[in-house]
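2024-03-11 09:14:02 DEBUG pipeline.ingest accepted 1 chain
2024-03-11 09:14:02 DEBUG pipeline.ingest length=155
2024-03-11 09:14:03 DEBUG pipeline.predict start
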Amino acid sequence: MARTLVVYYSLTGHTRQIAQAIASARDADLEAIEDVVGRDTTLGRPRSAFEGLFGLRSDIREPRHDPREYDLVVVGTPVWSVRLSSPVRAYLSQQRDALERVAFFCTQGGLGGNWVLQDMARVSGRQPIARMVISESELNTPVAEEKVARFARPA
């Protein structure tokens, strides 16, 4: 199996849950994107929605893993205001030249997942080998398990 890195940002834990399942299925390294902004606060959530809506990038900490060392980099994001989250937008922008083979997934409470996956491809400059949208209502169900199993199959 190809050496794989799963990189994700999660505020509520939903995206982390799916990232962990993918990493386990692929025996992959796992890395959380660390945002320097406190988001789980009274002003943090509206700020997140604003940044998502306007396509802004947040400040993130330097990643521990170098994407150049992997055959495949899987990137996961929550959907914010029907848009790509600002920490993942920052990661994809900063690592654009280091990414070669990618797969993208997102978790959503409402709508926007397919648009977010397209935006991830645009920001990274890479077409993914696999794409997946998991809705909040699918979490912890056989539907999510099957989607993750299909997505995580070696390509």
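2024-03-11 09:14:41 DEBUG pipeline.report The domain at 4-152 is CATH 3.40.50.360 (Rossmann fold).
2024-03-11 09:14:41 DEBUG pipeline.predict end
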